[in-house]
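ok here's DUF1700 domain-containing protein:
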Amino acid sequence: MNIKLSMEEKIFLNDVLKELKQYQISVKDRKNIKQQILEHIQESREHGRDSINELGDKTIFVKDFLEINGIDLYSKIKEGQISKSKTGILFVVGVCTLIATYLCSQLILSMFLTESFNPLNYNENFDYNIFYQISDNSWWNALLMSISIIASIIISMLIVFFTRRSTVRW
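and the structure:
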């Protein structure tokens, strides 16, 4: 529908669409609402009435739409606040899991695939460090570190994914 909107009508339409987007209303529903508002504006013009006064305040319009469609406004607001705090918690869980998994992986690999813990093999030039130096061979050390990094990234991503899924269900 191609009709010229006044500045007040454009502002009303944009504000309603932004607020609906904030409540995570689907794009399809927002397009339908936009179409309905445009049709209402055109009909009001044909009958010589003020369309904005008939539609009312944008917050009341959105609230009425949410009530008609059975969407609880309070739960949507609360859900938005909770989801922001959950993002921070998931980030902390992911970083802690990444570090712990990396250290465990490095320890396991150095115990079973290197001679770092072998009491019979002593090298004065080798300085063991669980973070970056678990083998005296540089290529083997780089390979083991790569394995540890990849494993820790995959495991931490899986833990964050399953933690997010379990919190969404509740």
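+1. Helices lie at 7-22, 27-46, 51-55, 58-68, 73-113, 138-169.
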